[in-house]
Design goal:
This protein is an alpha/beta fold. It has six helices and seven strands. Strands 3-2-1-4-5-7-6 form a seven-stranded mixed β-sheet, sandwiched between helices.
């Protein structure tokens, strides 16, 4: 998809009453709640297919308790990378933010950024094949520290894949903290905590390709 289309995709975020605007608020609330309860040792955040980074960066900009955090956002679209870097400039001085222009589907993109304590997989699972969703979920133990939180999104259009995603996460060692699926919209937001052991990062693995 041309870069201009990916930029335009973000426009509904500006309307808090739009479905995407409400989804953004839900994800931001999940990020804020993680920041509220994180332990002193939980410092690393990664965001896959980060777009303009609004789900994370807008939250960080409004907080004064995030010193020592490091965040790596991986995004392939050049125009969105520029927008994310502009937004990242507003992060508090004590936060290190890196916007990586690269393919978020390749585990090599996360080298030196993992294991992370918060992993955002928002806007990913609805744009890849079912097989790639399963492969990505199975790869999350290579991205997550023990105790890490994963926030993910997926539409519930038929056939609804979210029950399978939740089962795959359980199989991969995750406990479900919450699953938000309002009746009047098609999106859902899942929040899961990793209870397993971190696996070594295999830089050669391709988790997904956009379709």
């Amino acid at each position: 998809m041309p870069g201009d289309d990916w930029v335009a995709w973000h426009a509904p975020y500006d309307d808090p009453d739009s479905p995407l605007g409400r989804r953004l608020q839900c994800v931001q609330e999940a990020v804020s709640e993680w920041l509220d309860r994180r332990s002193a040792g939980q410092r690393r955040i990664v965001s896959a297919c980060a777009g303009q980074g609004r789900d994370l960066l807008e939250v960080l900009a409004d907080r004064d308790d995030v010193d020592g955090l490091s965040a790596v956002l991986v995004e392939l679209d050049p125009a969105n990378v520029v927008a994310a870097r502009q937004l990242a400039a507003g992060a508090p001085d004590g936060v290190q933010v890196a916007i990586v222009e690269g393919d978020a589907g390749r585990l090599a993109a996360y080298d030196s950024a993992v294991p992370a304590d918060l992993v955002l997989m928002c806007g990913v699972f609805g744009n890849i094949s079912d097989a790639d969703v399963q492969r990505t979920v199975a790869s999350l133990p290579m991205l997550c520290a023990t105790g890490a939180t994963v926030v993910w999104t997926r539409h519930r259009g038929e056939p609804d894949l979210t029950p399978s995603i939740r089962a795959w996460l359980a199989d991969a060692g995750f406990d479900e903290e919450s699953f938000v699926a309002p009746d009047d919209v098609n999106w859902s937001v899942g929040i899961h905590v990793f209870r397993g052991l971190t696996q070594p990062l295999d830089r050669d693995v391709v988790m997904f390709r956009f379709v």
